[in-house]
Amino acid sequence: MTNKELEKKKKESTYDASSITVLEGLEPVRKRPGMYIGSTSSTGLHHLIWEVVDNSIDEAMAGFANYITVSLLPDGLVEVIDNGRGIPVGKHKATGVSALETVLTKLHAGGKFGGEGYKVSGGLHGVGVSVVNALSSYLKAEVHLDGKAWVQEYGKGKPKGAAKAVGKAEGTGTTITFKADDTIFTELEYDWEKILTRLRQQAYLTKGITIEVNDKRVKTNEKKYKFHFEGGIMAYVKALNRNNAVKHDNIFYVDKDIDDCKVEVALQYNDEFNELVLPFANNIHNVEGGTHVIGFKTALTRTLNNYARNHNLIKEKDENLTGEDVREGLTAVISVKLKDPQFEGQTKAKLGNAEIKTAVEQVFGTAFADFLEEHPKDAEAIIGKCVLSAMARLAARTARASILRKGALEGMTLPGKLADCSSNKPEGCELYIVEGDSAGGSAKQGRDRRFQAILPLRGKILNVERARLDKMLANNEIKNLVIALGTNIDEQFDLTKLRYHRIIIMTDADVDGAHIRTLLLTLFYRHFEQLVTSGHMYIAQPPLYQIKKGAQIEYAYSDEEKINIIKKLGGNVEEIEEIAEGDDLTEPASAPEDGASTGKGNKAVSLRIQRYKGLGEMNPEQLWETTMDPARRILKQVTLDDAQSADEIFDMLMGDDVAPRKHFIQTHAKKVKNLDI
């Protein structure tokens, strides 16, 4: 859409104060922010940006905007600008104040609850910008409308004055500038990469829109990106598969309106063993799926089975392909737009509209059947991939039956290497997955046997990114781990059977330890994803250094901490970086008053620094004191903020394609500090 066409459409639109409907007040937000943005941590902080941007995206989906700018500014400020129609500033009959103030101070107030404000919108509840206002210590709204610039400022959701015209303005649009309230949020640092990922995604989902992203927090390191994708979700699927070997060149795509709904689907198969299906409703990512995903999966399985039967690509005596078979190696984006979306919760994780299941099933099923008929070579490649998956599934079923017997999962034949804990209450129990028998021996002796179990691993486990389930279950280390967890695996996974509510990966602080940790994380992400998403996965942080002064022992978990400890114990800062492993730093018999000078050679009092290369170098008491004692240890919880990014990273680091991994290493090599080889 050209700018001239855009301006014409805006003028023809009847979007004024009467378009705004009010349902209730704003006060509860500051009392219970988690109900509206999920949390007050980093996730909730970024949700503020998503809510404001979603309003601008709604203008774009309605055909009234084609440019959005998001900028991170100094002092924690965020600015979002769009060239839409501008929030109305006329007096609202129900509230007695301007429509702008109504939108910014009332829950469930917006153009999404009646009238002709929006036919399709992502902000279902209409609480977006008002919640942002309530949770911001400062917010300024600037509206360009009818040739004037209108401004209104707020503090913690309360207006500092009425909306007023401050001058002339060309065009129309809205600018929202806000600063998150530091008395509410525990985290105030915005993640640049997370913001880029989200806004790039929005640009893919809204064909023709341009989204500009600026990082102006530090003047000497300003960054700027601009996203525009004419191909829409077709371009999205192509980008998702850029590191994969695809099974067919033509990307399937359908875009059709049906019964007041818009259904858009794109897909392509690759030679991986995992599926990546990204569902969206009104441009909101539904991480838990919903009815549109059910409709898609039903049509996919039925259409491929019908085609395979009609063209004799599966034998008459063979059973049908299952949903698991037809989704192996699938990359798909499902985007639906509907007038009245029914989401579960303000974070919109799952879509519940029953009618969209039928719409997706009908539109996608018909179009995909036509695609297979029109592209026989692509169809043959897709069916071939699915048949191979079915064969592997049958082999895995046999392997699973022989390994994961019911009795084994209930603890009757736990692995011999597992040192189990005495408690039978999973919520209080921990499983340490330890690298090597030596570290495993120390951990077994140093642990608290009441609630800590130890499972040593011998060497590096199988890279599951390149293996199917039957091959995985033939690997002893993986088999022992599956049985110890008690949950089964993949589609038979049952979180309620988990025997330990903390699964802790404990590896050496060196390159091999990092590799083993990555192999384990790949296994858990690909085959036990619920353990990650439900918060059961942790990484232990063993110390890097032991610093000893006489009988006094201190542990440092980073180089910075090592420097601080040496300072505290009277070491000379200038000499710190020159200390080799095991060297002594000694204090002179009569140290200067400022305590700054320390020299080698005088054995009156010495500092001895030991760099730990592995867990096995620590005796059981040291391992308990530094890494396993709940009162003193450091654990990092493994979280999953973005499934798409996680999928791409694991595929790049652990997949078959060498080129992307080589590029990643070359790009980030200079950022690595203190690499142990």
Q: Explain this structure to me?
A:
- With 677 residues, the protein is of the alpha+beta class.
- The chain has 4 domains: 3-227, Heat Shock Protein 90 (2-Layer Sandwich); 233-400, Ribosomal Protein S5, domain 2 (2-Layer Sandwich); 406-542 and 636-671, Rossmann fold (3-Layer(aba) Sandwich); 545-611, no CATH class.
- It contains 23 helices and 25 strands.
- The strands form 5 sheets. Strands 2, 3, 5, 6, 7, 8, 9, 10 and 11 form a 9-stranded mixed β-sheet that branches.
- A hairpin with a 2-residue loop joins strand 6 and strand 7.
- Helix 4 (42-61) runs antiparallel to helix 6 and helix 14 packs across helix 21.
- It is globular.
- The two termini are 56 Å apart.
- Residues 112-116, 122-126, 404-412 and 576-605 have low confidence and may be disordered.
